[in-house]
Write a structure and sequence with these properties.
The protein is an all-alpha fold. Among the domains are: 91-151; 159-319 and 339-366, MetI-like (MetI-like fold, Orthogonal Bundle). Helix content is 66%, strand content 0%. The chain is built from 15 helices and no strands. The protein has helices spanning 21-28, 33-59, 67-70, 80-91, 100-116, 125-142, 158-184, 189-203, 207-217, 230-255, 259-267, 272-287, 289-302, 314-323, 332-361. Helix 4 (80-91) packs across helix 14 and helix 10 (230-255) packs across helix 12 (272-287). The two termini are 53 Å apart. The model has no long low-confidence stretch (mean pLDDT 87).
Length: 367
């Protein structure tokens, strides 16, 4: 019998910690020498720039609504321009004495959007709530009833107009996009061709061209004496534009569903619409939640383009507030930082909500 020599197994390396702050820093900031070098370079730049920015924005800033105080040598940011012009920035050319109406209308709309994003309100009554809040919104903004003075839509502006255009266009664009995405995968040539032409035509031109056509070209084709309010024309243009892009996002999700699931549904006797509603669409929409939210954020920011048709939303109202006053004109950068903060708050909130929705729809995959 041959003697066997005992050989010990080489020790394995200790497991590397994969959770915690140190592990996150090692994986994301110091993974290799290139990442480490870039981390050190960017960190050094931030250490140099951030103190200077904080000194300019906070320590040496002027907060009083006095443009003469902002011109003193050594003064940093002039936030007095926000204190002086904030009502014109937030509400545009809306009558000064009636600006409580857009304030209340905006709070109602924000409350409606918050309720729509809360699971407890996902009931049939939410549709009734939308009808009630939108009715109140347009009543407050337009007036002409209940003793409220009439205010034309061309005087609406600022944050209320931005929220109105973004929320309504996205709400109306989603069902259109869903129908177009299904139409592009239809076996009926007429429907498929029509949906394809619509998508390619809208995606082939920039949004600014769509708004220009809706505002200036469309009225030329209307009968004599028949006009459509510019706000409605712009809202329709943004809706159709957002729907075209969203349709392609949803179509990508539809194509990712294995064909075997559709065939299995057919063997069970499910109709086309039952298959789409119970099997295909829930999975497809769950797959493209990040892309849909990206489209939402893009549409929200694209509302700034309506300035070209003389609707002064948040960005346009800022230009109107500062460019019309030579005393405050040199301090427009503070105004742009102010509205940039507003845009960031809304866009970051939508991004975080997207992450929450994605976690909810993917719970079944974690079992």
């Amino acid at each position: 019998m041959t003697a066997q020599t005992f050989r010990s197994i080489a020790p394995r390396p200790a497991p590397v910690q994969s959770e915690g702050v140190i592990a996150w820093l090692r994986i994301n900031l110091f993974a290799d020498w290139i990442t480490t070098l870039m981390t050190l370079v960017i960190g050094a730049a931030l250490l140099y720039l951030i103190p200077q920015f904080l000194s300019w924005a906070l320590l040496r800033a002027s907060w009083a609504p006095n443009f003469n105080a902002c011109r003193v040598e050594g003064v940093g940011a002039c936030w007095g321009v926000i204190a002086e012009k904030h009502r014109l920035i937030l509400f545009g050319r809306y009558p000064f004495e009636a600006q409580w109406r857009p304030l209340v209308a905006t709070l109602l709309m924000l409350g409606l959007l918050a309720a729509s994003c809360t699971r407890a309100f996902w009931r049939p009554g939410l549709l009734v709530l939308w009808v009630v809040v939108l009715s109140l919104f347009f009543t407050l903004m337009s007036g002409g009833v209940l003793g409220l003075s009439k205010v034309e839509t061309d005087r609406w502006g600022g944050l209320p107009l931005t929220i109105l255009l973004a929320s309504l266009s996205l709400v109306m664009a989603f069902p259109i996009a869903l129908a177009v995405a299904l139409g592009r995968r239809s076996n009926l040539p007429a429907i498929k061709t029509f949906c394809t032409i619509y998508v390619e035509l809208i995606r082939g031109v920039p949004l600014i061209s769509v708004l220009f056509m809706a505002s200036f070209m469309f009225p030329l084709f209307m009968p004599q004496g028949f006009t459509i309010d510019v706000l409605i024309r712009v809202l329709v243009g943004i809706t159709l534009f957002a729907a075209a892009y969203m349709a392609e996002v949803i179509r990508g999700g539809l194509q990712a569903i294995p064909k075997g699931q559709i065939e299995a549904a057919a063997t069970l006797g499910l109709s086309y619409w039952q298959t789409q509603r119970k099997i295909v669409l829930p999975q497809a929409l769950a797959m493209v939640v990040p892309s849909i939210m990206n489209n939402f954020i893009s549409t929200f920011k694209d509302t700034s383009l309506v300035t070209i048709v003389s609707l002064y939303e948040l960005t346009g109202a800022l230009s109107l507030a500062i460019n019309s006053d030579s005393d405050w004109r040199p301090f427009k950068i503070e105004g742009y930082l102010f509205i940039a903060m507003i845009y960031f708050i809304f866009c970051f909130s939508m991004s975080r909500y997207s992450i929450w929705v994605e976690q909810q729809v993917n719970k079944s995959k974690l079992r």
